[in-house]
Design goal:
It is built from two helices and four strands; from the N terminus they run E-H-E-E-H-E. It is of the alpha+beta class. The protein has a two-stranded antiparallel sheet. A two-stranded antiparallel ribbon has the order 2-3. It is globular. It starts with a strand and ends with a strand. It binds iron/sulfur cluster (SF4) (2 copies).
């Protein structure tokens, strides 16, 4: 699964990259709803701080 680490700087870029709307703003960082995420990896490629990682 893909997760967003504390390296997130809340730029919001990943939200528009996600075709299924799995990313939203959380408390201090953005979060991925793993029930919705289809693990395409598009958000990870778009994150300028490499905060989205696969676990
Ligand atoms: S693109 Fe990266 S830094 Fe920007 S909100 Fe998403 S996870 Fe955070
Ligand atoms: S891996 Fe794909 S489906 Fe999952 S949150 Fe990122 S862009 Fe959305």
């Amino acid at each position: 699964m893909y997760v967003i680490t504390d390296d997130c700087m809340c730029c919001g870029s990943c939200v528009d990259e996600c075709a299924v709307g799995a990313i939203s703003e959380g408390d201090g960082k953005y979060v991925i709803d793993t029930d919705i995420c289809v693990e395409c990896g598009a958000c990870a490629d778009a994150c300028p701080s490499n905060a989205i990682v696969q676990e």
